[in-house]
C-alpha cells in the first residue's frame, strides 16, 4: 500500500512497513522514508494475520514507524484491534493492557532485535479502525502504551 500523500510509507509483500528514522510525521516536517522490511522474518507471521494476544481479540499489525521527533528514537508499532471499538467493543482498556504488554515483549522486541534497531522507547498502539499517524479521528477508539526496551523485555513507562 502506498499512501496518497507526498510522503510515502510503503508496504511490500503484505508486510508491515517501517518508516525510516528521521521522524514519523506524514505531513510537513521530517518525513517517512521508504524502508521495506518483512515483519518477524524469523516466523511465518504475515502482517495481515492476527497476532495472538492474552485477551483473544484479533490484533493485526498495520505499520512500524521509527520516529526521532521526540528528541530520541522511538519505535511505534500500530495495530488494528476492532474489538476495542467504543460503541460495541468487547475489549476494555483493562483487558487490552496485557495485550499491549504481550505485543511489546513477543512481537516488537524480536522485530527490533532482528533489525538491529535500538530505540529509547517503544510505543504500542491499538486502534479500532485505521487512523493515519498524527491524524485526529474522534470516532476512533485508540489505546497507547509506552515502554523502555530492556534487553529482550519491555518495561512499562507511565506517561
From TrEMBL:
Protein name, per record? Acetolactate synthase
Q: Where is the composition biased (Low complexity)?
A: 11-21
**Location of region: Disordered:** 1-21
Q: Where is the composition biased (Basic residues)?
A: 1-10
Q: Pfam families in the record, alphabetically?
A: DUF6497 (PF20107)
Q: Which organism is it from?
A: Parasedimentitalea denitrificans
